[in-house]
Amino acid sequence: MTKKRPTAERTQDFADLQRPKAVPLAAPTATSAPLSQQLEELGSLQFTRAEAALIVGLPDLEGDVHTSFLRGQLKAEAEVRRAIFTLAKQGSSPAQKEFLGLVERRRKREDENT
Prior knowledge:
Radius of gyration: 24 Å
Number of strands: 0
Structural class: mainly alpha
Shape: flat
Strand content: under 5%
Low-confidence stretches: none
Number of domains: 1
Number of helices: 5
Largest sheet: none
Mean pLDDT: 84
Distance between the termini: 81 Å
């Protein structure tokens, strides 16, 4: 039977494993990627506007920065659609179904806007 060490000694073994303190998010600096590039990347990862604003340290995303953010969202969506289209052309039944759903939703949006 092994003898347990006192709790204080066992706790000391894990002292170096404690989580580091949170580092506050800061606004981009001259050495970081341009703000528009950061926002495009965050948009591509499908963060919300509020989440992206918090990450880069802005109160809100407006004007050109919102355009960069939206560009990232749409580019990511385009990549996924391209992959779906490629799989659909290769005969993937689920991809064909998804692609036809995309076509139908686009047509519906176009009809609503005319």
